[in-house]
# Entry
Amino acid sequence: MTYKMPCTLLFFLLFGYVSAAHAAPPYVDPSTGMKFIFIKGGCFQMGDSVGDGDPNERPAHEVCVSDFYLGQYEVTNEQFKIFRSQHNSGDSQEISLDEENQPVVNVSWEDAVAFAEWLSQKSGQTYRLPTEAEWEYAARAGSNQSRFWGNNPNEACTYANVADLKAKEHREKWTVFSCNDGYAVSAPVGSFKPNGYGLYDMMGNVWEWCEDVYNSEAYTKLPKDNPLYGGSGEYRVMRGGGWSNGPLGIRSSHRVGLSPDFGHHSLGFRLVKTVE
# Structure
């Protein structure tokens, strides 16, 4: 007699880790419509565990984070303009970056923090930027490879809006992925496949501000549990790469610092909602 595994059991065995990550239902902010996915805390190897990263991504080390909610999508122009109606994300080579469902860009770290504080006061919830550790934990979604979909950069256009053959039509000197994602600049949020936690655009589309002060040697200075670098430094961390980045910039462990009062055409953010 041949045993036939029930579909429900097979689904659990294959995808149970994702369900565990989403043990609570999503939360929708009533003021903006932003949807937040519950991320079950846990431990992971943070940093360059593959060997294709920069010195500031080493050493790879175990980090543990507590439960949190993370925006399923990057904050859009439409959502940000509820807070600051006069904001204009601009354009790049006369291609708009300011459509309603594109991610808001040309926002500084200070702008992102101000938006989180405004929304917290308006809603009675607590919103903030993700820590660098929370961001990487969520971006990896259980993966220990360069990108949540694996180490093959040529699969990027299925999962991320990156510097690709479409972008190269407008910028011939760029180093790009050998694929075509259909967008020369930022795409409407959620246009590509999500990662295993149901989060969209964690790689590519736009860089995302994090809470931490940037320090190239932070990984040797921080505790294992819920690390947040708040020491001295003139820059803040941004993660994930954007539509103008090639393979070196689109990796889960890639980290860069930028002045908190500066913004650019491929830099935005998403928010954390704390677990009450």
